């Protein structure tokens, strides 16, 4: 069973949160509400999120300040942030949003289909990264003697390698399809860069797995970084 991704919705107005939930419900992911920057930071202490939709104008801690706190934390600094704003003060205001670490800056009223499409890209990238981490964890078990444990339970290490290779192939195929979709849709540069980073990690994991195949002469290959 595939675990759903979590999307953090941050806005001080309940009607705006309700509208976002209506737009994003079609993605069939877990939507988490936060009515302030402080509440958003608390949610980020315990849960992992695929993307954050962050209102700029909020009483107390506004969106820019909230984003600054998010980017300072090692646990949350890589979570994509999409700023939503009802005002437009020109290029300087937009630049401030990107400088705060946002991957996108959308003015209200926005096209629901466009917002849903943008969020879905980051959800897909998040899910692929989760799958990649799972494959890397399985490979580490193999490298650290997990194969012998499987063999002791009546399962050959070669069978585990074949299963790992098949699972990785499925992730590689999905990542390739996503990259093609990004190219066709002229997606945001941040999404394209994230997809390219994912592909590099997949390549490194495939090389490490291939080195374990019988007859390759491989020892204990280094695993790709998960950063």
TrEMBL record:
Tell me what this protein is called: Response regulator
The scientific name of the source species is: Streptomyces xantholiticus
| Keyword tags | Coiled coil, Phosphoprotein
- Which InterPro entries does the annotation name? Bact_response_regulator, CheY-like_superfamily, Sig_transdc_resp-reg_receiver
List each copy of the Response regulatory domain by range: 6-123
Q: Where are the transmembrane segments?
A: none
Phosphoprotein as a keyword of this entry, yes or no, is: yes
- Alphabetical list of Pfam families matching this protein: Response_reg
4-aspartylphosphate sites (modified residues):
55
Q: Which residues form a coiled coil?
A: 161-188
Please name the PANTHER family in this protein's record. Answer: RESPONSE REGULATORY DOMAIN-CONTAINING PROTEIN, STRESS RESPONSE REGULATOR PROTEIN 1
UniProt-listed SMART domains:
REC (SM00448)
Instruction: Please give the superkingdom of this protein's source.
Output: Bacteria
């Amino acid at each position: 069973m595939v675990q759903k991704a979590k999307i953090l919705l941050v806005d001080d107005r309940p009607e705006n949160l309700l509208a976002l939930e209506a737009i994003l419900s079609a993605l069939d992911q877990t939507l988490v509400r936060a009515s302030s920057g402080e509440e958003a930071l608390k949610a980020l202490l315990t849960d992992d999120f695929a993307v954050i939709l962050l209102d700029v104008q909020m009483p107390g801690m506004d969106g820019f300040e909230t984003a600054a706190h998010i980017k300072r934390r090692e646990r949350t600094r890589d979570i994509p942030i999409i700023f939503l704003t009802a005002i437009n003060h020109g290029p300087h205001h937009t630049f401030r949003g990107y400088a705060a670490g946002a991957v996108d800056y959308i003015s209200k009223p926005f096209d629901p289909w466009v917002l849903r499409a943008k969020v879905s890209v980051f959800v897909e990238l998040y899910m692929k990264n989760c799958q990649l981490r799972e494959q890397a964890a399985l490979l580490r078990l193999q490298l650290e003697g997990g194969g012998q444990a499987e063999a002791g339970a009546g399962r050959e290490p070669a069978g585990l390698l074949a299963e790992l290779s098949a699972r990785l192939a499925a992730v590689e195929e999905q990542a390739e399809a996503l990259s093609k979709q990004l190219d066709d849709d002229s997606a945001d540069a941040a999404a394209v860069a994230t997809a390219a980073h994912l592909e590099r990690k997949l390549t490194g994991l495939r090389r490490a797995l291939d080195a374990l195949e019988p007859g390759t002469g491989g020892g204990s290959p280094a695993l790709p970084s998960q950063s």
